[in-house]
Amino acid sequence: MLLLPGRLLRQTVLATPIRQGLTGGTLMVSLALLVMVWTVSRSLMAGWFENLQMPDALVYAMPSLTQWQWQAIRKVDAATQACAATAFPVQTVGMQLGMKGITPAQTLFVGTDMASFGRMTQLKWHAGDPETALRRLEGGRALLVSREWSVVHGVSVGSPLTLETLAGPVKFEVAGVIASPGLDLATHALGIWGLFSDVSASSVFGTREDAKRYFGIDAPNLALLSLREDTTDEEAIRQLTQAAPGSRAGTSRAIRRGARSSLDRLTVIGSAVAIGSLLLGCVGVGNLIVAEVTSRRFEFGVLRAIGAPRSLLGRLVAGQTLIVGLVGCAAGTMLGTEFSLVERGLHQRLVGVTYPLHLAWDVIAWGTLVVLAAALLAALPTIWRLMRYPPRALLARLE
What we know:
This protein is 57% helix and 16% strand. It is an alpha+beta fold. Strands 1, 2, 3, 4, 5, 6, 7, 8, 9 and 10 form a ten-stranded mixed β-sheet that branches. The longest helix is centred in the C-terminal third of the chain and has 44 residues, at 252-295.
């Protein structure tokens, strides 16, 4: 592309391979961060977040919804279906999501009518038969667990799950494995999570009868609702908060928008860190080119003396810079992909979240162009000065 003799460019690059390799490594880090941030955010959004099945709206009251509040919520014009639930943290025995010794061995127990809840959210079943599982729940001491629990602990239909109750540890049986209903995300968004004392990242579902029998909690504190399609989020929240004064209400659409906005902000912050790393890498490229031109000043003078045009020296240094940048981009793409795989593995092992990896090829392409352009810009002042030197100045001995 630069019309350079291949042997001359090869000798230029191989003269100081370690220095140029380390300089390419500084550019590698910036592109690796960019690839990881965008690949993980897109994969998480497309492979997990978009598949969450949440009720259209939720209403939470502390410590519980009164009878008249529940009746008023059921009668609001915006709602078509309503389902009462009792949600509270429970201590698990021998199982937890997250890192042992760091995250609490707790989860969110949701006691509700799973038949109504399933119709409301159109639950996806990963293991177990819905009819058999619902009959087993009605018999007591049975739970539905999210797929995250199944991934982390290998539990499936028939597996025991021990919870701390008022009477001590009680073994429950897993009756089915369902897709994450997104209540964990919803409780975060509504600010309920802090009241539950840092419970972990997944829920188990049982009946309200079990909640009363084993945990002594009877009154519902969470209402799950389906909304009319023509109802706006603002109108739905207004009606629900008027029906239950003092409660917290939110819609799944608003919660999704908020979560997506938060993920976008994290992506922007990560990209800013990558750009900062790129600027530092460009400083390294500039220093490399200055050192290369200084150490090979006599060689460049000889080339000019035997008839090489000024542009050849500039193209030679530009070609060296491009090779350093391309090596950094190739290594950065591989490292960023490896970071993304590690991040996905951590999500799976710690919290059970699984998703396919979607490499951000457009970000890789644009990132590569930006890295190469930035490297050339960093080398441009030195290239310009080199092309202006006459042969005698290049051949002169440096003091």
